[in-house]
From TrEMBL, chain A:
The gene is oppF_3. This is Oligopeptide transport ATP-binding protein OppF. GO terms for cellular component: plasma membrane. Belongs to the ABC transporter superfamily. PROSITE patterns: ABC_TRANSPORTER_1, ABC_TRANSPORTER_2. Residues 6-254 form the ABC transporter domain. It comes from Palleronia abyssalis. SMART domains: AAA.
From TrEMBL, chain B:
Its main location: membrane. Residues 70-259 form the ABC transmembrane type-1 domain. This is Glutathione transport system permease protein GsiD. Pfam families: BPD_transp_1, OppC_N. Belongs to the binding-protein-dependent transport system permease family. One of its GO terms (biological process) is protein transport. It comes from the Bacteria. The chain crosses the membrane at residues 6-25, 72-99, 119-143, 191-216, 236-255. PANTHER family: D,D-DIPEPTIDE TRANSPORT SYSTEM PERMEASE PROTEIN DDPC-RELATED (PTHR43386:SF1), OLIGOPEPTIDE TRANSPORT SYSTEM PERMEASE PROTEIN APPC (PTHR43386). It comes from Palleronia abyssalis. InterPro entries: BP-dependent_transpt_permease, MetI-like, MetI-like_sf, OppC_N. It is a multi-pass membrane protein. Gene3D superfamilies: MetI-like. Keywords: Cell membrane, Membrane, Peptide transport, Protein transport, Transmembrane, Transmembrane helix, Transport.
Length: 269, 271
């Protein structure tokens, strides 16, 4: 239990700054993540919170290696995947899944629901992918009759269930969920959260859940890290952090007081 | 729905006429009979039975020439349109998806290509390649692939920014697999519409080249050649001009309408 699934050490990420004025040469880099260090233990449910633009999505995309960090290391199960090539990552892909914020854009509009769930399985050599995909439709409480529909024929909540089935169908070790309920109405949000809770418990998933909705985090996540301008300002057990925030930023987030503008120093440091 | 059936009906007639031309053409399209010159179509007084659309100034049967002309029009539409689509959309897909230097090279070639005026380019090419059906087809493909490349490149770029492409990476699809299985199906409706337009354009370009006597040998019946000849007869035998022009118009319109209609019909997102 003690050895973590993901170990993140001094993670840095910089991207080319497309807004910077330049005449020649490569675009200058702008730092987005500034030295993050934390572990995600097996079976953890980790909340990642922070205001808009604090780097939550960027961090998430590094964890599932949609982005390549520019510094530090990420270990998955002890294997260094920080700079793994697509070829080397192939072996780990099954274990690093992601549920996207907007299923309308992340589910291919021209693939049927069945194909959306079965294709990941087929790619990883899972036998009887279609049959297992139909089972998954039951697991996410959609029902098999949705198999032949297309994403635009579903409601927002149904679409997000397909997104969940697609990720969970691979029985990955790690799932990243990036603001997966923010586009839904409140009652649908609650259903999706309940479903996720259920699946995490049943399937021994390790979950990182990005949200700006602290009540959802409080309900779903045992641990939480608080991000501000690409740095971790606080980390620990959810109950502890929210009952006694050590950092004024956390307290401010929690009481949803308008946050003061960040000074330039944050971005440049 | 209606347009799909109407345009499809006309195209089906053309295809059947082209395939079975030797059996259904009432006369030899090349047979001249100076005693039967400039006969009017059957609905005008003075028509001769058996010459439904009349005859031209050399006494050749217009209907038979139209039927054989459909052969050439369709061959050009399918082969020239297909070749242009294949070259153009392959380059457009690769440039739009991979970006970087692939995109820069393809983009530069497109810019250079488009700086030639197309009709002049076509005439020049045929002059170099020599007249004949194959050089007409080649010339159209060589000129018109940029239509596909430009549009497909832009569409592919837009599609590649969608999250479903990121999602394909996460589920472990290869780059090329993502292009083929995820991006291509989303570009296909655009491609279908472009292709149907291009088939119409190919028919017109062939007619233009026939008109300026740069297509296939002037004896062979082509619609463009018939229009060129009909022009000189417009006061004595207007049907020689009107019949191929109407057929050309209907065919170009049918290709585009059929493409649009088919797209609406088979695209799951529009159903
Ligand atoms: N491709 C990019 N190029 C340059 N800067 C980027 C890029 N993507 C994100 N950023 C910047 O990185 C910072 C973090 O963005 P990120 O999307 O990770 O924030 P977030 O915490 O997920 O915000 P939100 O809650 O609004 O989703 C922002 O300041 C953003 O402008
Ligand atoms: Mg975000």
């Amino acid at each position: 239990m003690a050895d973590p699934l993901l170990q993140v050490r001094d993670l840095h990420l910089a991207l080319p700054d497309l807004n910077a004025p330049r005449l020649f040469g490569p675009a200058p880099q702008v730092g987005i993540l500034h030295g993050l260090t934390f572990d995600i233990p097996r079976g953890a449910t980790l909340g990642i919170v922070g205001e808009s633009g604090s780097g939550k999505s960027t961090l998430g995309r590094c964890l599932v290696r949609l982005l390549e960090p520019t510094g530090g290391t990420i270990l998955l199960n002890g294997d260094d995947i920080t700079h793994a090539s697509p070829r080397d990552l192939a072996a780990h892909r099954r274990d690093l899944q992601m549920i996207f914020q907007d299923p309308m854009s992340s589910l291919n509009p021209r693939h049927s629901v069945l194909r959306l769930i079965a294709d990941p399985m087929r790619l990883h050599g899972i036998q009887d992918a279609d049959a297992k995909a139909r089972d998954m439709l039951d697991r996410v409480h959609l029902g098999r009759r949705f198999a032949d529909r297309y994403p635009h024929q579903l409601s927002g909540g149904q679409r997000q269930r397909v997104g969940i089935a697609r990720a969970v169908g691979l029985s990955p070790r790690f799932i990243l969920a990036d603001e997966i309920v923010s586009g839904l109405d409140v009652s649908t949000q609650a259903q999706i959260i309940r479903l996720l809770e259920e699946l995490v418990a049943d399937m021994d998933l390790t979950l990182a859940f990005i949200s700006h909705d602290l009540s959802v985090i409080r309900r779903l996540c045992r641990e939480v890290i608080v991000l501000r301008a690409g740095q971790i300002v606080e980390a620990g057990a959810t109950s502890k952090i929210f009952s006694a925030p050590a950092h004024p930023y956390t307290a401010a987030l929690q009481s949803s007081i308008a946050l003061p503008e960040l000074d330039e120093g944050w971005l440049l440091s | 729905m209606v347009r799909l059936w109407l345009s499809g009906g006309w195209l089906a007639i053309l295809v059947l006429a082209a395939i079975f031309a030797p059996w259904i053409a009432p006369h030899d399209p090349l047979a001249q009979d100076l005693f039967l010159e400039r006969l009017p179509p059957v609905w005008i007084d003075g028509a001769e039975p058996g010459y439904y659309l009349g005859t031209d100034s050399l006494g050749r049967d217009v209907l038979s020439r139209m039927i054989y002309g459909a052969r050439i029009a369709l061959i050009v539409a399918v082969l020239a349109g297909g070749a242009a689509a294949l070259i153009g959309s392959t380059l457009g897909l690769l440039a739009g998806f991979y970006g970087g230097w692939t995109d820069r090279i393809v983009g530069r070639i497109i810019d250079i290509w488009m700086s030639f005026p197309p009709v002049l380019f076509a005439i020049l090419l045929v002059a170099v390649l020599g007249t004949g059906l194959h050089s007409v087809i080649l010339a159209i493909a060589i000129i018109d692939w940029t239509r596909f490349a430009r549009v497909i490149r832009a569409e592919t770029m837009a599609q590649s920014r969608m999250d479903y492409v990121a999602s394909a990476v996460v589920i472990g699809r290869s780059r090329l697999g993502t292009l083929a299985a995820e991006v291509l199906p989303n570009v296909l409706p655009t491609l279908l519409v472009l292709f149907s337009l291009e088939m119409g354009i190919a028919v017109i370009v062939e007619a233009i080249l026939s008109f300026v006597n740069l297509s296939i040998s002037s004896d062979d019946p082509t619609w463009g050649g018939m229009i060129a000849e009909g022009r000189t007869q417009i006061h004595f035998a207007p049907w020689v001009l009107v019949v191929p022009m109407v057929a050309l118009f209907l065919t170009v319109l049918s290709f585009s309408q059929f493409g649009e209609g088919l797209k609406d019909r088979i695209d799951p997102v529009l159903r």
